[in-house]
Amino acid sequence: MSANVNKICTMLEMQNAMNTKVHAEWFNQGFEWYRAIWVECAEMLDHYGWKWWKKQTPDTEQVILELVDIFHFGLSLRIDGTTSYQEIAEQLTSELEQPTQAEDFKQTLELLAASAVANKTFDAAAFAGCMAQIGMDIDDLYRGYVGKNTLNFFRQDHGYKDGSYIKVWHGQEDNEHLVEVVKSLDINQANFADLVYQGLKERYPA
Fold first, then answer.
1. Which of 39, 70, 92, 170 is 20 to 30 Å from 1 at the Cα level?
2. What SS3 class is residue 104?
3. What is the full DSSP assignment across 23-77?
4. What is the pTM of this model?
5. How many other CB atoms are there within 10 angstroms of residue 192's CB atom?
6. Is residue 174 located within the same domain as residue 125?
7. pLDDT tens-digit series, residues 75-107
C-alpha cells in the first residue's frame, strides 16, 4: 500500500469514528454532505477574495483550513458501508493524482461546488486542482485533517457538548495550541493522531 493510500485509509477511519461519535447511526441518516461542500466552497471564496470592486488579498491559511473541512465532507460522501477503506482510498488517491484545474483558483473551486450542487458528489480531481493552485500537497492535507479531527474528538471528550470545555488556555485558543503540537511531530509516525491528542491533553488545564 502506498504512503498516500495509507494516509487516506487513516483519514477514512477517523472520519467514520467522528461521524459515529456525533450520531451513532450517522450512516442511515441521509445527511446532505454534498450541501456542506458547496456551502464551504462559498465561504472559502470569501476568504480567497472575489470582489472586483475592492482590493482583496487571499487569506491562504484560512483557505487551506476550509479545504481540510471540505475533505471531511468528501470522505463522508465516499463511505458507502460496503466498499473497503482501502478500495476507497486507492480510488481517491488516483483522482487526487490527476487534478482538474480551471484558469484560476476561483474557477476550479466552482467546478468543485458545481459537482456538489448538480450531482451531489465529491469531485476529488477538482479538489486536487484547488490544492495545487493554493500550494497545498497531500502531506499538508493529512497534517491539517488529522489535527482538526483529533481536536474535534478532544473537544467532545472535554465537555464541548455540555458547555464545560475551555477554548482558551494559557492565553491561546485551542486551534493555536493544535498548530504548535502538530508542528512538533512527525506526520509519518503510525500513531500520529494519538500523539496529537496526547500533546493537546498535556497542554489543557486540568
1. 70
2. coil
3. -TTGGGTT--HHHHHHHHHHHHHHHH---TTS-----HHHHHHHHHHHHHHHHHH
4. 0.87
5. 20
6. no
7. 999 998 899 999 999 999 999 999 999 999 999
